[in-house]
Each structure stands twice: as C-alpha cells, then as structure tokens.
Amino acid sequence: MRKNRLRLVGVLAAVLVAVTAPAVQAKDEPPTLAELAQRHGRYFGSATDNPELTDAPYVSLLGSEFDQITPGNGMKWYATEPQQGVFDFSAGDEVVNLARANHQKVRGHTLVWHSQLPDWLTGREWKPRELRAVLKKHIQTEVRHYRGKVFAWDVVNEAFNEDGTYRETIFYKTLGPGYIADALRWAHQADPRVKLYLNDYNIEAIGPKSDAYYKLAKKLKAQGVPLHGIGLQAHLALQYGYPTTLEDNLRRFSRLGLDTALTEVDIRMYLPADEEKLATQAEWYRDVTKACLAVRRCVGITLWDYTDKYSWIPAFFEGEGAALPWDEELRPKPAYYAIRDALK
Ligand code: 9MR
Q1: pLDDT averaged over the chain?
Q2: Which structural domain range is residue 21 located in?
C-alpha cells in the first residue's frame, strides 16, 4: 500500500515536471528590447497614454518588453494644473504606478511647452512678473510631486523654430529667452537629483535648429545653469530621408558634457504600407538604434508608443502611419527585428 502510494507520488512528480517544462523553455524566449539595451547600459522605452491602459494585451507587452516609460499626455500642463493653482496628478500617477510595478523608469514629459496649455493660462494677458510666478509654481509643484519617481524631465519642449530662432510662445513673448534658464534652475531647486533636458523634434540632423540647441546648451553650461541632456524626439518620415548626421550630432552634444536621448521615436510613411517601405523603415530603426549605441552619452531610446494601434500619426498627418515597430494587432514588424539586430 505504502509502496503504491510512493509510486503514485513519483508518477505525480514526473507529471509535474512534464507540465512545468514549458516554463523552463520560456527561458529560451528571445530577450526583450530592454534586456538587450541594458547590456549596453542603455534603456529601451515606450510612451503610453492613460486611455490605453484598459487594453490588457497592450499593457502586458508594455510591461514586459520595455524598461522605461514616458506618459504621452498625463504630465502636461492642461492635465496637471487644469485650474490655476489646482493640481491634479492622477493621470501621471497612474502611469508612474504601472511603471513602478513593472520596474520601469519614467521620463517626465513635459513642464514648459506652448501646446496643450490650460485655457486659464492662454486666455488672458500676463504681466511678466505674474507669469514668472505662475511658471515657477507650476514647475516646482510638479517636479516636487514626482521627486524620486522620474529620473529625467523634459523641462522645456520645442523652444525653437525650424530656422533656429526662438519660437514665439507665451513664455518667450512675455519673459524673453531667459525663461529657459529660469525653468531649469527652478526645476533643479525642486529636485536636485533629476536630469533636466531640453527636448525637440527635427533636431536629429545637424542644421539650423539643432545648431540653435548646441549654441544655447553651450551657453547654459558656461553659465552653470543645470542642464543635463538634450532630447531628440526623432519623429522621422520616410519621405524626408534619413538624418545621416545623427551620430555626429549626438557626439557634439556629448562633448559639451551632456547626455542625449532619443525621446519620441517613430518613423512614418505614406499608407498603405508595403514590404519595401517596411524594409526601409526597419533599416532606419536599426540605424537610429546603432547611432545611439555608438555615442556613449546617448542614454536610451523611447518609442512614441510601440504599436500602430495607438500612434498619434494618423490623426495628425493625413494618409500617413504605420510608424511603429509593432502593428495594430500587436504583431512585431520588420522594424522590431531590426532593432533587436542592432542591439545584439
Ligand atoms: O502623443 C501626444 C498626442 O496624444 C497629443 O494629442 C499630442 C498633442 O500635440 O501630443 C502628442 O505628443 C507630442 C509630444 O508631447 C511632444 N512632441 C510631439 C508629440 C506628438 O505630437
């Protein structure tokens, strides 16, 4: 009787081993982009937005493939200070809490931007003294709230025009160009440890706009203003050609003692996508990844969401899309494999 029972236990154990074997095999699954990037001391991240967080398969991939998250909208001024002096961090907190549960780091985006501002701010005239106080309070309240929870902030977003002149935002027009140094100093006071970035699009290649950042960064560094990095959004489009000077551009910023990051990468095309366009897109993703790996102070890469299902492109550029490495069904595209190759 006892012997039979022992035998039964043995059989059960064998069955258990057989059943759990696939879990062991799971270790042979390809490494995630995050794991591959970590081998180079980089992160590989994605933006996300609150409405998407009810999509379970989406959230699952977001939690497993990446080690860095940027909230696409939840930390912007309209969301965080909807009425003057009334702060609401619920959207940003939701993303931060999810990221923490998945052991992912968070880039804060963004404190000072001309877009997605609340009506109370844009709907009236401000005296410089008043706007300075409003700006300082906004920056410091938000930075303090996320102290220790975000590792970097896009402090000022999209401050320059294509020709390298200052964008005439409400902040520039009311306060002059010094608002940028002030914003950086105020953010630094509120969290002396967080990395502070200026962030913009169309500054991947060397040209008037990236030159403006280079000049400004050099000046700010010389003045001892707390600036730690430049974020290159990298919203690329096949029809405009690849920014071949990207690597040199990253390198010149690192020579100023600055980190760089590719903060909002997507590579759009005219629809419909076809095999050839997707192959070119894959090459570009590979080259962008390699450019970052080639420059020591390029600290990581963030996709502006990872799936075509939630890309901002179709709503903003008529007839364009298919910009991300996963398609609308969350299936990896050639671009995904190209990124993996580049990271290997
Ligand atoms: O992804 C964001 C999208 O959901 C918003 O509708 C849009 C509004 O301008 O902003 C998008 O994110 C932008 C980012 O904050 C700054 N760089 C450009 C991004 C794409 O517009």
Answers
A1: 94
A2: 1-30
| Probe residue for ligand 1, chosen from 312, 313, 316, 324 as the CB with the greatest number of ligand atoms within 8 Å | 312
- Whether residue 266 has its Cβ less than 6 Å from ligand 1: no
C-alpha 330 to ligand 1 mean position (Å): 21
pLDDT beyond 80 at 176: yes
For residue 2, pLDDT beyond 70: no
Closest atom of ligand 1 to 115 CA is 9
- Whether 113 and 18 share a structural domain: no
Parallel, antiparallel or unpaired: strands 235-237 and 298-303: unpaired
Which residues lie closer than 8 Å to 215 by C-beta, 6 or more apart?
none
Q: What angle do CA 145, 146, 147 make, to 5 degrees?
A: 95
pLDDT of residue 29: 87
pLDDT digits (tens, 9 = 90+) for 139-174: 999 999 999 999 999 999 999 999 999 999 999 999
φ and ψ at residue 295, rounded to 5 degrees: -115, 115
Q: In the structure, what pLDDT confidence band is assigned to residue 26 with cuts at 50, 70 and 90?
A: low
* Judgement on whether residues 91 and 182 belong to the same structural domain of the protein: yes
23, 73: one domain: no
264 lines ligand 1 (CB under 6 A): yes
Residues known to be catalytic: 158, 264
Q: How far is the CA of 157 from the centre of ligand 1 (A)?
A: 11
Q: Which residues pair with 267 in a beta bridge?
A: 236
Q: Are residues 239 and 310 in the same domain?
A: yes
CATH code at 275? 3.20.20.80
Cβ neighbours, 10 Å, residue 16: 10
Cα-to-centroid distance, 276 and ligand 1 (Å): 28
